Amino acid sequence: MAVTNTTNHKSYIPIADFFIALSNETGSLITNLKLQKLVYYTDAWHLANYGEPLIKEDFQAWVHGPAIPSLYGEYKHFSWQPIVREDLTTEKFEQIKKVIGDKAVELLDQVCDSYFGLTAYELERLTHNEEPWKKTREGLSDDEPSDRVISKDLIRDYYSTFIK
Question: In the chain, what are the domain boundaries?
């Protein structure tokens, strides 16, 4: 059940838009760093629960945690400031939910319950203490850039150990 966007083939777009729209709705600011982690956890828990990715793009083990380079590139002009997208209105938020589908929205709601209230730094610390990011960065110093891909299998296997 991978989300696809036929216009530009970036399957993470509706997921990222969901979180940014939720940020607009709740007034809870979201940065590029926080967005990356929320998108990562969404894919991780989808892999754990359903055995397949929701997002086709790979995450890389960057210094500040898992990241999709093209998603980072779309919002890097915000730097460490909150992402502002005035086009993601309440109406657009409802449209995004329809595009994503009920099963994915249910998962996104669970991800929000667990992670949305955390700061970007708290999310970064979480990913740094989890096996997929740590294992992928083995042999690298803490501040050494990396484009190593975090294996979807590694992500699925790790997070599925927490499913009851």
Answer: 13-160
